[in-house]
Design a protein that fits this description.
Mean pLDDT: 86
Strand content: under 5%
Order of helices and strands: HHHH
Distance between the termini: 78 Å
Helix content: over 70%
Structural class: mainly alpha
Number of helices: 4
Low-confidence stretches: none
Length: 98
Amino acid sequence: MYNYIEMRAHVNSRWFIFQKNIERFLHAIMPSTFIPLYTMVTFSRIRYHEAVLRWHWQKKVINRGLFLFGTLIAVSCTYLLMRYRSPRPLDYLRRPSE
């Protein structure tokens, strides 16, 4: 009974739902490259072991892509924040306006 509750909490988590939506999106734009595990197991002739291996590869690609995208966003935001929060170069040399 405990495993059922634990599994149910995992399936209802926001991260799991987010990953499933990414899988669906990638399957929609690249149907021969990204196939959700359920689809591979239920609606194809791919062996279960091969489907699981392919699913692990797809998850690795998705996670690395999300990591790179997140890193790009963090670096961009840091750059913009530093650029607009720091004083302009040589502002301290200008005369105050009278």
